[in-house]
Amino acid sequence: MANKLMVHEQEAIRNLTELGWGIRRIARELKVSRNTVRNYVRTLEPPDPGPVSEEILKSATVALPGSGIQTDPLSTAGNTGRQSLCFLHDKLILKKVETGLSAQRIYQDLRLENAFAGSYQSVKRYVHKLRQTNPELVQRIEVQPGEEVQVDFGAGPYLARADGKKNKTWIFRIVLSHSRKAYSEAVLRQDTETFLRCLENAFRHFGGGTLTINLDNLKAAVLKADWADPQLNPKLIDFARHYGTTVLPCLPRVPEHKGKVESSVKYVKNNALAGRKFATLAEVNQFLLNWEKTVADVRIHGTTKCQVTERFNLERPFLTRLPDTLFPCFQEAPRTVHRDGHVEVAKAYYHVPPEYLRREVWVRFDSREIRIFIPDKEGALQQIQVHRRLQPGQFTNPRGIGGGHGSLQANLDYWLKRACNLGSSCQLWARAVATHRGIGGMRTLMGLVGLTERHSFPAVNQACERASARGTWRLRDVKALLAVKEIQTQITFEEHHPLVRNLSEYGLFVQKQIQNS
């Protein structure tokens, strides 16, 4: 033969030939050449229809040990009517399925331990049929009043904008597990702050909380999914502590653990939102609020066989008491103050006092305001600035061309006012500059104010007075006048003064000292 077959491949061809498989089917399944399969089949003797072949060809009935359930024969044939290669390892595969192994793991074990020559897809199909034949028993769980609430998000309606585009929304749905009383809210995001605000709105709507919150492993709530020891978002932990509840995420990818809210989300989408259009988020939420009162709350629930409102009235006294204050929901992160005295938060820019330039600050922000802190020596946070939340791209303290906060004319008026406060001569000269040069004289006025940092106010006023007399309205003229040395005042000495003595008295004093020595 052109290609040499491995021992397990030869055995597989022999077994598949006995099962009635054709050369093309065997070659495709084993991923070998058809000529190779054909040449090997020719070397085989005609199959002896002994007990082994009869056992392989007969139908198999598969049932879980001890289940007591009589199942239908498991079909292992494909579209061609031939049996799967997996049937040779049916007992082993069934045992692995019972232990909960995945089809991928079973395929890997068969390849390593049993020289399995079939494909992964054949194992996957066989395992799927086994699981359909032996469905897993699902236990129904009912809770006492006030014990549990289930939470989930579902896709909401699109909002039609004026520019023709659409905004996608999400429906937050929360259901009291005992009474099936629910609350719905449409939102644009599924971040942590939005999620906590929805939870808080729901508790306020119900008039109380529950002992536990059963939710999915959404990113806004669970950082690392683990049924036994999940890593929750710190904000969610603080929220649960604030409202006296416990968060219990369900098993990952097992929506049956929160089946009450799963079916409730479908109920909202099919009954309330299907076929309706909305323009704003407020319009959706107002509709959902009215729909809850007029439709969802007055219906007879299919499982409890009671009206939702009546059952909720019985559960209401068992809800936990709400705290007096709302949960301070915010996001926080470190920021470095830029050279322009601003920090960037959510694509907007907020002013910080100049003494904190290039320093790291701590920012807490929510949907309404921005708070900026600086840690003290003990590590405690000291608040240094508070701003209202801005839209992306906006500044809290923008500067104009003249360094002010308004238009060019407003900045000119600002610097003219500051120059006029330097003195009467500076006021006359500054007003003349503004009159003669307009906006172009704004920087001249800024420079005039800056001269007071190096010269005294009288000197600057004297220079402005002389510049006005000469009719010069440039800052360099004032600087030149300041550079001229001031005429020194002649110092005169007085001959007669109580403190001034006659020179003869000093002579007598010296003689006495010499005689005494």
What is this entry, summarized?
The protein is an alpha+beta fold. The chain is built from 18 helices and 15 strands. A five-stranded mixed β-sheet has the order 5-4-1-6-9, with helices on both faces. It has a four-stranded antiparallel β-sheet with strand order 10-13-14-15, with no helix packed on it. The chain has a two-stranded antiparallel ribbon with strand order 2-3.
Q: What can you tell me about this protein's structure?
A:
About 25% of the residues are buried. Mean pLDDT is about 80; it is low at about 45-80, about 400-405 and about 485-490. It is elongated, with a radius of gyration of 44 Å. The protein folds into 4 domains: about 5-135, no CATH class; about 150-320, 2-Layer Sandwich (Nucleotidyltransferase, domain 5), CATH 3.30.420.10; about 330-390, OB fold (Dihydrolipoamide Acetyltransferase, E2P) (Beta Barrel); about 410-485, no CATH class. It has helices at about 5-20, 25-30, 35-45, 50-55, 90-100, 105-115, 120-135, 190-205, 235-245, 260-275, 280-295, 310-315, 410-420, 425-435, 440-450, 455-470, 475-485, 505-515; strands spanning about 150-155, 160, 165, 170-175, 180-185, 210-215, 220-225, 230, 245-250, 330-335, 340-345, 350, 360-365, 370-375, 380-390. It is built from 18 helices and 15 strands. With about 525 residues, the protein is an alpha+beta fold. The longest helix has 16 residues, at about 280-295. The protein has a 5-stranded mixed sheet, sandwiched between helices. Helix 2 (about 25-30) crosses helix 3 (about 35-45).
